């Protein structure tokens, strides 16, 4: 107990434990972002987090909850908008991503009483990880991993072929909503770790790295978790020793891993990966 | 009369102002093979999506037999290459046992691909995999959207032949979209020519003489099919007799179109 206590009292260990928790859920969810081409969508949700923070201050709810609610509302708005196809999806996402970010910044500037570290929110803050954050991260991780386990086949099937899945009776729309909810949670809990501007990187890069070595969807998800762990541990060490910002350091480590894996795997096998 | 699997009445689908499917009536019995033909944008895919239950009709009625198991063969499997997936895994995602998946693959002639990645299949192999995926669910109704797309000319005839054999083995109904007019004309019980509304429908042999068909596809196509049919009528009739699935053949073969044609 005392060891755990010591660990949790140390901000470095808190950040590491929190970061590993985030990587645990970012791995499998990141795979879905890659498989379903939702990178830009994830980015849009992440950008809305700032608006969520402003909102949580306004109606005094916990930050994480405010961010989750805002992301879910935005996700649903996006789903509705994209149904009537007057604007291309990427245009729509571009509009909403940056508008959400800008509105969030403007809203926060209207609250001079709120002392907030904007750089920390945008790029992550190692020091900011509290015990409360750890609770949110691991609570979210338990929820998301349970949901993923139960819904795995349906999610996979609706990713592979949405219409085939529907014909086979899989509730595609409901699963899409649940996936949005899971994205919203991961954004809310990862926000302090890497910052809203870099969250998508934490979702995509480990998953993309894993693709090079995986032969099944499950292997890819597991490897994505592993590469996420490497990115978090490596990034935090880098930050600790060189005094670099934590969020960007994690992303830089993830990118370096990506380059190494793609470089070496390319030499090992000339065949295209299965 | 065999069991009615699907019946649609006055089915209409609009996308905004655009009328995509216009008051279509259709009924499909167990053992029937109905092929929908028609120009691009005629609403063929929308019509079968309504039958599949993935497109909500704007108006009209659609009735499906109780507990109808549908096997759907989509146009293609446009899968992101980022998703690693083997043929075996794709089959198992149907929720059926490995033995059943293997026997479905064997039936469509692609059991050797069990370990292969779905990303490395040829057009023909992919269609046979999708067909196996539909079969493994033991469908009462098989719905195929251009099953021979991306299949070479020899493979096409073999594929249509396989679909007909499967209809006999499973005693299911088949509804498919096709552009391969010659093959369709030879392999189908009933053809529906769709151009938003049903232009004409009936036995393959009759339909190529239909003025509405000629108007839709042009005289050269109709003539070439008519010649083709003259040649093949016997084998078609003979086949019908041998198989003995011709119950629906006694029905009115040819419904004249009630719409005006411009």
TrEMBL record, chain A:
Keywords in alphabetical order: Cell membrane, Membrane, Transmembrane, Transmembrane helix, Transport
InterPro entries: ABC_TroCD (IPR001626)
Statement: the UniProt record of this protein carries the keyword Transport: yes
Coiled coil (UniProt feature): none
Transmembrane segments: 12-35, 47-80, 92-114, 135-155, 175-208, 220-240, 246-265
One Pfam family, short name: ABC-3
Lipid bilayer topology: Multi-pass membrane protein
Compartment annotation: Cell membrane
Claim: Translocase is one of the keywords in the record: no
Entry-linked PANTHER family: ABC-TRANSPORTER METAL-BINDING PROTEIN (PTHR30477), HIGH-AFFINITY ZINC UPTAKE SYSTEM MEMBRANE PROTEIN ZNUB (PTHR30477:SF23)
Family classification: Belongs to the ABC-3 integral membrane protein family.
Descriptive protein name: Zinc ABC transporter permease subunit ZnuB
UniProtKB/TrEMBL annotation, chain B:
Record keywords: ATP-binding, Cell membrane, Ion transport, Membrane, Nucleotide-binding, Translocase, Transport, Zinc, Zinc transport
Keyword Transmembrane helix on entry: no
Protein name: Zinc ABC transporter ATP-binding protein ZnuC
InterPro entries: AAA+_ATPase, ABC_transporter-like_ATP-bd, ABC_transporter-like_CS, Metal_Ion_Import_ABC
PANTHER family, A to Z: METAL TRANSPORT SYSTEM ATP-BINDING PROTEIN TM_0124-RELATED, ZINC IMPORT ATP-BINDING PROTEIN ZNUC
Superkingdom to which the source organism belongs: Bacteria
PROSITE patterns: ABC_TRANSPORTER_1 (PS00211), ABC_TRANSPORTER_2 (PS50893)
Basic and acidic residues: compositionally biased ranges: 252-262
GO molecular-function term, one example from the UniProt record: ATP binding
NCBIfam families assigned to the protein according to its UniProt record, in alphabetical order: PRK09544.1
Keyword Acetylation found: no
Annotated region (Disordered), positions in chain: 238-262
Ranges of residues in domain ABC transporter: 6-221
